[in-house]
Amino acid sequence: MTFALRVDGDRWTKHVDGRLAQIAIATGNAAVPVIKGGGYGLGQLRLLHQVGIRDLPCIAVGTIYEALECVGSTQSRVLVLEPFDPRDELAAAAWAKVPANAFTRTIATAEGLHAVCQLAGSSDSAAPVSIVLEARTSMRRFGFTDNALLQVLTEPSTRNALREGRVVLEGLGLHLPIAQPDDDVAPRAGSTVVSAKVRQVLRWAGLWQAELDALQLGGQQSAALWVSHCSDEELLEISAAVPQLTLRQRSGTDLWLGDRRALQAEGTVLNVAQVPGGTPVGYRQRSRARGGHVLTVSGGTWHGIGLQAPSPVSSVRQRAVAAGTGALDAAGRALSPFSWDGRQRWFIEPPHQHVSMVWLPEQCTPPQIGDALPADVRFTTSRFDRVLGLEPLGDDA
User: What does pTM read for this prediction?
Assistant: First the structure.
């Protein structure tokens, strides 16, 4: 039973190296690869290996739990994107398992910053604690508003911790939406900046530069903007507008999954059964009026098959497709991600834990046991038994 991801290694490597080079040109700095959520289907260790052979100085992960899994597997600095806040007691307990300076923390609340300053002032803290302050962009997910950021940086405890070097401020984080946001402030008269993302970044850049001047920290480490979801053209525009600030682009989906033709998920055919019309099959004992073939295929809910995130519908066509899909689900019919003979095939019933049962009409020539059925999946919610085509790791060797 094998649900596999087959990678065209040469094509995938060419894409990754190309994106890293383009980001470096656009920002003047190395990209910050994001390795989170199980490594985008490719596996965290495999992506850490890819970062290692390219000698990239910094990576980003989603949570402290993912950061702990990196210990001993990377020489790169690790930025944890989920904000540190002591009120998340379980996460705080996980942070306590490693030295205070082990990873760079994202700070998005005054409570989080106060806790870090207190930690950095404790007697058992032998090295400074590194942080990135997160701004609240039009994503509005988390982060400091401009007023809250100004307020927290004027507090004596914060300034003392920064000026004494107990807390190392590595810059300002700006997590931007994928779509172009609405502008909170109208563009300046005569401005040639077209992108709302660029205008938003530049507004924060101006505020950040003013705060750095007021803090008088010295050095360039804190003069950084950590951004995401900017195009190369937008990065070039930002770099040209604020050359005194270091621009760091965090890249995940675009970097690892940007060339989908280099990646193919596939399930192995485990059994082919020809059944006449009206024959009950599966756990639910459903039947079809006409005869056909029941294909049992590797790949079930454990692998992410049949598990869907809500669709980001925006157009009339997307709404119509979503409504039609919902109606089919209500009628007990659902398309599987598996294809055969050039067409996506129907589930017989909801997928099982490790396998799926797929219906093939009788007029189709069925596959043989051991054949591979391509599957169109969302890689960030998929788990594969094997990943083929990249450098072998562990049992893949």
Answer: 0.89
Compute the distance between CA of residue 393 and CA of residue 130 in angstroms, rounded to an integer: 32
Among candidate residues 236, 257, 278, the one where a domain is terminated: 257
Summarize the confidence of residues 11-26 as an average pLDDT: 98
Residue 311's domain is classified under what CATH number? Answer: 2.40.37.10
Q: In what order do the strands lie in the sheet with 104-107?
A: 32-33, 246-251, 224-228, 167-175, 129-134, 104-107, 77-80, 58-61
H or E element in which residue 94 lies:
helix 89-95
C-alpha distances (whole Å) from 85 to each of 5, 47, 112, 162 are 37, 28, 4, 19
Contacts of 214 (CB under 8 A, 6+ apart): 153
Cβ atoms of 183 and 200 within 8 Å: the answer is yes
Residue 98, beta-bridge partner list: none
Q: Which amino acid is at 278?
A: G
Report if residue 186 sits inside a domain: yes
- Sign of the Cα torsion 184, 190, 191, 196 reads positive
Half-sphere exposure of 108 (CA within 13 A, CB side): 20
Same domain for 298 and 267?
Answer: yes
Distance, C-alpha 240 to centroid of its chain: 28
Is the alpha carbon torsion for 213, 217, 220, 226 positive or negative?
A: negative
CATH of the domain at 81: 3.20.20.10
30 closest CA partner among 252, 250, 257: 250
- Range from 124-133, 260-269, 307-316 carrying the lowest mean pLDDT: 307-316
Number of domains in the chain: 2
Check: CB of residue 344 under 8 Å from CB of residue 356.
no
